[in-house]
Design goal:
The chain has helices at 2-21, 23-36, 42-58, 64-79, 84-101, 106-122, 124-145, 150-167, 172-189, 203-211. With 214 residues, the chain is mostly helical. It folds into 2 domains: 26-103, no CATH class; 126-214, no CATH class. It comes from Algoriphagus jejuensis.
């Protein structure tokens, strides 16, 4: 009887595992991630964002679609001529929803800081003093949540670089963080496969910060 029950529960667990993998979800995510790499215009950015939001509606238990939608809205604000506060607010709303699905997630926490950094960039003189400590705290938390997360270190390096420029100090701390993040990116690249849908972005930004010290 024990053998039968053990076999039954193992089979049941296998079925649940197979179902949770959800090839349709993974394929949809890979399609959007591929499209994300080709974005050249605001319209294309919004189309990919909407694709991630449709996946989020279909899979409300998954945090990654909301994460990427938030990332794209924030990146669009940095990259294109838009109402930047509106886009950063939308990104903040999306990443807050992702945080409720997966609290204390290093990637989500780092993007929260990324959004705050964007809000600071809109009006550094009036927002820097109040928001910069919050962004630094979020990047520090993201690093502590996952010491292997290169994006947390990279974003911290960008923040340090901006602060060094503002206060007229040297870039050494920013460059050190950037170099450490590049090492983590290289380690991450060795683990990435064609089925990988977790975040991998940001190495070029780390290299840009590190390049200041050459």
């Amino acid at each position: 009887m024990k053998t039968f029950l053990s076999t039954f529960f193992l089979a049941f667990a296998f079925v649940l595992s197979a179902f949770s993998a959800d090839p349709a979800y993974e394929n949809a995510m890979k399609t959007q991630l591929a499209a994300m790499e080709t974005i050249q215009t605001l319209e294309e950015s919004q189309a990919v964002t909407n694709g991630f939001l449709r996946i989020a509606e279909a899979k409300p238990e998954e945090w990654l679609p909301l994460y990427y939608a938030a990332y794209l809205q924030a990146t669009a604000a940095f990259r294109f001529d838009v109402n930047k506060d509106q886009y950063f607010d939308q990104a903040d709303e999306l990443i807050t929803k992702a945080d409720k699905i997966a609290p204390n997630n290093s990637e989500i926490t780092a993007i929260k800081g990324y959004v705050l950094m964007g809000k600071i960039s809109v009006d550094p003189s009036s927002r820097g003093q109040s928001l910069s400590p919050q962004a630094m705290q979020l990047f520090g938390k993201a690093i502590n949540l996952d010491r292997e997360n290169p994006r947390a270190l990279m974003l911290m390096s960008q923040m340090e670089q901006g602060m060094a420029q503002f206060f007229g100090s040297g870039p050494e701390k920013a460059c050190g963080l950037a170099r450490n993040s590049i090492a983590l990116y290289s380690k991450e690249e060795a683990e990435v496969s064609e089925d990988y849908i977790l975040p991998t972005w940001g190495k070029d930004l780390a290299e840009k910060v590190a390049g200041v010290c050459k």
